Amino acid sequence: MIIAIDGPAASGKGTIARALARHFGLPHLDTGLLYRAVGREALVRGIAFDDGPALAELAAALDVSALDPEPLKAGPVGEAASRVAAINEVRQALMTLQRDFATQAGGAVLDGRDIGTVIAPEAQVKIFVTATPEARAQRRHAELVARGEEVTPQSVLDDIRKRDQRDSSRASAPLTKAADAVELDNTTLGPAESVARALEIVASRT
Ligand code: C5P
Fold first, then answer.
1. Per the annotation, where are the binding residues?
2. What is the pLDDT tens value at each position of the chain, 206 positions in all?
3. Which of 92, 125, 136, 154 has the fewest CB atoms inside 10 Å of its own CB, making it the most exposed?
4. Whose alpha carbon is nearest atom 12 of ligand 1?
5. Which residue owns the Cα nearest ligand 1 atom 2?
């Protein structure tokens, strides 16, 4: 069983994906980490966000099993990830890796922006997780403050809107709900309620 969870930044898709993976005993891949790893490496090495060949080289050299989420969750890395994610060569370089993960024996849960549309269009279960930009900004703000980052609620909301705009309008695999995905709007739901709703969706699809 392949479960594809897509949605915008800070929509709670990671929480849902992790819970479903645990529930069904499936491996889970947070595909945002791949783009974040490329974005962070580009920042560290001073590679321009429009240098397709150099970014694709970084992407091709990634070791999925060695991704450390901690430094990848910092605010500036999210922005860098969204910049490199708009580069077609980067997406191509990360595609095989994600497809191999999705099609392993027994199934997998993947979360990202284009899992149901591009990476695993054959997935039995597709969930498109959404919430208002304000609700998502509030969650991301709390997360960043807990990490010790000094950010204002307004700057987080601005960043979320900018990323939504870039992720939805790019030419290569833009963020969009697959025709056969079920939408889960969790603006007014807590994590446990969101997961319960996701489990109902899986049950209705399998
Ligand atoms: O989900 P997360 O916020 O960690 O993703 C960081 C960035 O990576 C997103 O803003 C998006 O531009 C990009 N991304 C993508 N396709 C995916 C996952 C993430 O373009 N499947």
1. 7-15
2. 999 999 999 999 999 999 999 999 999 999 999 999 999 999 999 999 999 999 999 999 998 888 898 899 887 898 899 999 999 999 999 999 999 999 988 899 999 999 999 999 999 999 999 999 999 999 999 999 999 999 999 999 999 999 999 999 999 989 999 999 999 999 999 999 999 999 999 999 98
3. 154
4. 82
5. 32
Which residues sit in the known binding site for ATP? 7-15
| Residue tagged 């980067």 (tokens) | 90
The length of the chain is 206
Ligand 1 center–CA 67 separation, angstroms: 15
Kindly give the distance from the C-alpha atom of residue 76 to the centroid of ligand 1, in angstroms, as a whole number: 13
Nearest-angstrom CA–CA distance, 43 and 88: 19
- Three-class secondary structure of residue 112 per DSSP: strand
Q: What's the predicted TM-score (pTM) here?
A: 0.94
Strand partners, 129: 184
Residue 189 CA to ligand 1 center (angstroms) comes to: 23
What is the distance between the alpha carbons of residues 14 and 7, in angstroms, rounded to a whole number? Answer: 10
Residues 167, 59, 126, 186, CA torsion sign: negative
